[in-house]
Amino acid sequence: MAIRKIRKIGDSILNKQTKEITEMTPRLASLIDDMLETMYDADGVGLAAPQVGVLKQLVVIDVSENADEPMVLINPRIVETSGEQTGDEACLSVPGKSGKVTRPNFVKVQALDRNMQPVEYTGTELLARAMCHEIDHLSGVLYVERVEGELHDARASE
Ligand code: NI
After folding, report:
1. How far is the CA of 122 from the centre of ligand 1 (A)?
2. For all residues of the chain together, what is the average pLDDT?
3. Is the dihedral of CA 1, 24, 72, 52 positive or negative?
4. What is the homologous superfamily of the domain 12-157 according to CATH?
5. Residue 31: which H helix or E strand, with range?
6. Are residues 131 and 109 in contact, defined by beta-carbon separation less than 8 angstroms?
7. Which pTM does this prediction carry?
8. Which band of pLDDT confidence, cut at 50, 70 and 90, is reported for residue 157?
């Protein structure tokens, strides 16, 4: 496993569409492991493949307190949402900043897991927010496009 370089805002790869994944390969399995390691190393709760320069529909998420519940989503689709939450959001590709974004408070996602088997996840609050944020990355959308008001400097703890 290896820590990959995280692309930063201004890098045009972050604004590109991604491609569906059709088969698991050793190369893709390594990418998943590297993305998890990169996310944990950066103290993030999610990372999308374009953030490490790969235009594929793959995200990893872990919102658990002990960072021990990794979620791997291949070709994820949001199939249901409800409610609303408004709160500060940040992104490893926009270091040191955060901004207020409104997201659904409940999200249901269908995807494939790392064995290319169908999975369905539901999330509320932070998990719902993370799923929306990461899936946005797969369409080349950064949260800064959705911010209400101004981006501000994140507190050191964020
Ligand atoms: Ni992000």
Report:
1. 19
2. 96
3. positive
4. Peptide deformylase (3.90.45.10)
5. helix 26-41
6. yes
7. 0.96
8. very low
Give the span between the Cα atoms of 148 and 87, in whole angstroms: 10
Give pLDDT tens digits for 133-144.
Answer: 999 999 999 999
Which residue type sits at 36? L
- Give me ligand 1 centre to Cα 140, in Å: 10
Q: In the prediction, which pLDDT does 130 show?
A: 98
Q: Running DSSP on this structure, what letter comes out for residue 65?
A: T
Q: Which residues are catalytic?
A: 134
Domain boundaries, the chain: 12-157
Q: What is the pLDDT of residue 154?
A: 86
Of the candidates 61, 72, 67, 69, the residue with the CA atom closest to the CA atom of residue 111: 72
- Residue that is written with structure tokens 């307190």 in the block: 65
Cα–Cα distance measured from residue 158 to residue 154, given in angstroms and rounded to the nearest whole number: 6
How many angstroms does the Cα of residue 115 sit away from the middle of ligand 1?
25
3-state SS of the chain: helix, strand, coil percent to 5?
25, 35, 40
Residue 98 tokens read as: 């955060």
